[in-house]
């Protein structure tokens, strides 16, 4: 029986979808202009594409986790609305492309059937609240952050305060030691910590503020060493209030919270947040809910018991399988609950078919704990896999083409969709990702295997290019009067011991087709000149930008332009810029 909270939430969602249907019909009838309708659809997570008449629909996945039933529904939506495919993003969202506007309201209702929503997945709002995909099962976690991430996500959904901010606002929660959701590149980052007060252990968060990527990346600053866990909604509201009042509404290119930090200084920002926080403690604000509706953020009042894997196929052969052994080494880790493992399923370019999604839901049900987890690097994780069933799970993944080993290795590449669909993208980043994955797959040097590659189709950093050991973002140049696809190469992105991300150094813009050669030169030099125990970032800093620029300078301006240089990866026709209006800052 639904609770009053769930009934009220469901009614709000359904009414909002039908309001959008009316607005979409008014737009189609010419009663609303493009500018009037743009904000309407972006609030509902619906982007325009470079292809006319169709849209990208972005589904929020609070805390990066869905139930088996939700995963089956996401799969069905991919088949019925998304041409059989869905795309996983670096913010744990699920995106569908090429959806005609007239069909969008029906898609939204399908999501609402399982309490998923696209509301505020785009536009100047609080975006999807991300969290550790290994929350609740990581061997080294301080505590499970999922309940707090869900409550924050629910607290600021459909609220006047967060409906029209100066710009987007991002929040992340990490409970593991590695900070696998990169809290420091968010407007607000929460890392789980524990204090002892009066002899009792108390949960809380170390809070950072003002981080962000985009064309001008900014390191976050430490706001609080310890925030009591029960105060996360209060602090979020305080920071959002400050951003709402002082964010730059006159220039969207300088509207993020990081620019308030840059222009007014950290001391001013910290003092102003503290005043708002104290006002909320005294006078009240948005309350922290006791619980969220069933299904929201994968929440189930009575979680399913871990499965046994009994329905999985049993392998007859016991012969040594080197591919399986590699998969065990790179894609499987111990879980804190004895006898179970966490497996990472590589999702090339972040793209899944409906069939694969259905099969993963079945796998989570039959041999896991009934949940599917999305990671920041566009992979899927399953927990509570019985150690004795790993070979059978591997066989099941083989049957759907998702058995690749090498998770978190050099060929496990993170990238945005790029010019496949995005109006703002200059280059086809997914195609470059596929090409580089094949290029580095055979690399055997163990230190190089540990590195990661991040690719974006433009400077806006949806592929988080600033944070990769090697990062690339698309641009273009004219050569001999023709447009040539280029990528800016960055080297040395890293995460320091305090969990703060250090951004890659801009080296050189290079023709798209010559990126493999540039990587090869860097790797050859790295193998010959690295020092024992030296990180890749420290190696880059030791040799400095000018050295690497010289290493690839001849590639930047080739003396002879091969005809394929005028084509992007995966294309057989000459490259041309076909930019529409970018909606990242609309």
Tell me what you see in this structure.
This protein has 586 residues and is α+β, with helices and mostly antiparallel strands. It folds into 4 domains: 4-112, Sulfite Reductase Hemoprotein, domain 2; 130-283, 2-Layer Sandwich (Sulfite Reductase Hemoprotein, domain 1), CATH 3.30.413; 303-398, Sulfite Reductase Hemoprotein, domain 2 (Alpha-Beta Complex); 414-566, 2-Layer Sandwich (Sulfite Reductase Hemoprotein, domain 1). Helix content is 33%, strand content 20%. It has a 5-stranded antiparallel sheet. Strands 3-14-15-12-11 form a 5-stranded antiparallel sheet. The chain has a 5-stranded mixed sheet with strand order 6-7-8-9-10, covered by helices on one side. β18 (470-479) and β19 (482-491) form a beta hairpin. The longest helix is centred in the N-terminal third of the chain and has 25 residues, at 4-28. The two termini are 41 Å apart. The model is unreliable at 314-318 (pLDDT under 50).
């Amino acid at each position: 029986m639904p609770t009053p909270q769930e009934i009220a939430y469901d009614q709000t969602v359904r009414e909002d979808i039908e309001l959008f249907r009316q607005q979409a019909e008014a737009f189609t009838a010419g009663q609303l202009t493009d500018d009037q309708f743009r904000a309407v659809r972006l609030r509902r997570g619906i982007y325009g594409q470079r292809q006319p008449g169709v849209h990208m629909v972005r589904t929020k996945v609070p805390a990066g986790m869905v139930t088996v039933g939700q995963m089956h529904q996401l799969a069905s939506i991919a088949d019925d609305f998304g041409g059989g495919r869905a795309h996983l993003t670096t913010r744990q969202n699920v995106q569908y492309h090429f959806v005609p506007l007239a069909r969008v309201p029906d898609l939204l209702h399908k999501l609402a059937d399982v309490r998923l929503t696209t509301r505020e997945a785009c536009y100047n709002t609080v975006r999807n609240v991300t969290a550790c995909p290994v929350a609740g099962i990581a061997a080294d976690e301080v505590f499970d952050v999922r309940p707090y991430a869900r409550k924050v996500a629910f607290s600021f959904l459909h609220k006047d305060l967060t409906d029209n901010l100066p710009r987007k606002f991002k929040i992340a929660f990490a409970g593991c030691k590695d900070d696998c959701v990169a809290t420091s590149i968010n407007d607000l980052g929460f890392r789980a910590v524990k204090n002892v007060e009066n002899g009792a252990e108390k949960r809380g968060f170390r809070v950072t503020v003002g981080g962000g990527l985009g064309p001008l990346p900014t390191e976050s600053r430490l706001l609080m060493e310890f925030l009591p866990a029960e105060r996360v909604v209060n602090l979020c509201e305080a920071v959002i209030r400050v951003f709402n009042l002082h964010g730059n509404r006159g220039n969207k290119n300088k509207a993020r919270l990081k620019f308030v930090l840059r222009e007014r200084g950290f001391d001013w920002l910290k003092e102003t947040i503290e005043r708002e926080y104290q006002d909320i403690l005294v006078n009240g604000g948005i309350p922290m809910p006791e619980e969220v509706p069933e299904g929201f953020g994968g929440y189930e009042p009575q979680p399913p018991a871990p499965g046994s894997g009994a329905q999985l196929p049993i392998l007859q052969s016991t012969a040594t399988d080197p591919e399986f052994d590699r998969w065990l080494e790179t894609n499987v880790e111990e879980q804190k609950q004895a006898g179970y493992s966490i497996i990472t399923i590589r999702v090339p370019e972040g793209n899944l078919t409906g069939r694969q999604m259905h099969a993963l839901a079945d796998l989570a049900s039959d041999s896991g704990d009934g949940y599917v987890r999305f990671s920041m690097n566009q992979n899927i994780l399953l927990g509570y896999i019985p150690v004795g069933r790993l070979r059978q799970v591997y066989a099941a993944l083989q049957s759907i083409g998702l058995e690749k080993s090498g998770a978190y290795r050099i060929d496990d590449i993170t990238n945005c969709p790029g010019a496949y669909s995005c109006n703002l993208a200059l280059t086809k980043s997914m195609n470059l990702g596929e090409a580089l994955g094949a290029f580095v797959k055979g690399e055997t040097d163990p230190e190089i295997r540990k590195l990661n590659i991040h690719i974006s189709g433009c400077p806006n950093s949806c592929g988080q290019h600033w944070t990769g050991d090697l990062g690339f973002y698309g641009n273009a140049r004219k050569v001999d009067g023709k447009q040539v696809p280029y990528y800016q190469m960055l080297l040395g992105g890293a995460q320091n011991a305090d969990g703060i991300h250090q951004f890659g150094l801009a080296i050189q813009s290079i023709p798209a087709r010559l990126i493999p050669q540039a990587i090869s030169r860097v790797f050859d030099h790295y193998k010959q000149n690295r020092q024992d125990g030296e990180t890749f970032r420290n190696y880059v800093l030791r040799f400095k930008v000018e050295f690497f620029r010289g290493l690839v300078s001849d590639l930047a301006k080739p003396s002879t332009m091969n005809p394929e240089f005028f084509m992007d990866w995966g294309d057989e026709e000459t490259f041309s810029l076909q930019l529409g209006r970018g909606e990242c800052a609309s």
